[in-house]
């Protein structure tokens, strides 16, 4: 008998959460492979819609779409832009805030998420980076109910703040191919990407001050969002983000062990 026989072979959707830098991606990779899911990342959603708007090439002042405390109607936006393409309109709304260095409000994030999630028929997704607030959690459950879908469980990747800071400040990235290195655990040869031969860089938001700000934001916003989902009956499987021996098999085992526990 397989030790994971109690785990369903198919799941509808999974939410993955954890502090920034906790080690979510390797665990997401396990879920994608084990349950034949796709990763739906809010980062990719924003890049997709911002890309659509940028490709459209509108060069006007975005403030003309804003009317005091909200956007003008979508019909008016379409009239000004000269297109009723939903992707371009959503991209404009995101860009309005991004260009000013402001957080994108929940109602806009929800619009972007719903538009993208609908293309996946609201199923077979690992939700990465969403929901991140209580408001987003409430919106997600209402949307799932409307579409007769569900979240099977939440995978919560745990890690200590100090360990995250140590890992993240030493992270370096190739500006050409995006390959990630670590000055201690996986140093780049001669400070250069072994694939591209260019000097690796530290991301601008990988400083200790910004990391600790993100950690505080997680406690303030994401934890209450996950608590709300738990109270609504969605089980949480907690998995360690740090393993003494980091191997693909150990990562897989830690994830499946955590999932197995919630199914009894």
- Overall form: globular
Q: Report the end-to-end length measured between terminal Cα atoms.
A: 15 Å
Remind me, CATH topology? Rossmann fold
Approximate strand percentage: 5-15%
Count of β-strands? 7
Radius of gyration: 20 Å
> Which sheet architecture does the biggest sheet show?
5 strands, parallel
> Quaternary status of these chains?
single chain
Strand order of the largest sheet: 2-3-1-4-7
Question: At the fourth CATH level, what is the homologous superfamily?
Answer: P-loop containing nucleotide triphosphate hydrolases
User: Order of helices and strands, N to C?
Assistant: EHEHHHHEHEHEEHEH
Question: Which properties best describe this structure?
Answer:
9 helices; two-stranded antiparallel ribbon; globular; 7 strands; 12% strand; alpha/beta; five-stranded parallel beta sheet; 264 residues; Rossmann fold
Short description:
The protein is an alpha/beta fold. Helices cover 47% and strands 12% of the residues.
Structure commentary:
- It is built from 9 helices and 7 strands; from the N terminus they run βαβααααβαβαββαβα.
- The mean pLDDT is 93.
- The protein has 264 residues and is of the alpha/beta class.
- The two termini are 15 Å apart.
- It is 47% helix and 12% strand.
- The protein is globular, with a radius of gyration of 20 Å.
- The chain has a single domain, classed as 3-Layer(aba) Sandwich (Rossmann fold), CATH 3.40.50.
- The strands form 2 sheets. The chain has a 5-stranded parallel β-sheet with strand order 2-3-1-4-7, sandwiched between helices. A two-stranded antiparallel sheet has the order 5-6.
